[in-house]
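Try this one yourself first.
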């Protein structure tokens, strides 16, 4: 007998990125994590209205690493 093939389920894995930003104005780094690096960088450099990083713009992304979970 022929078995019907089951369609494969798509797995969407949310990756977390730990990132390091550098501010030339204070010669210091900021370390954070996010599920959406592009939006987070925009928040640090343009959109954010509160928080420590808004004071020392612009921030330059100098490193990031991917992790499967926040706990990692």
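Now uncover the answer:
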């Amino acid at each position: 007998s022929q078995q019907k093939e089951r369609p494969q389920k798509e797995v969407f894995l949310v990756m977390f990125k730990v990132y390091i930003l550098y501010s030339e104005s204070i010669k210091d780094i900021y370390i954070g994590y996010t599920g959406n690096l592009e939006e987070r960088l925009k928040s640090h450099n343009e959109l954010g209205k509160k928080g420590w990083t808004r004071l020392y713009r612009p921030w330059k992304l100098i490193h990031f690493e991917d992790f499967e979970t926040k706990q990692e």
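Discussion: The two ends are 46 Å apart (CA to CA). The longest strand covers residues 59-67.
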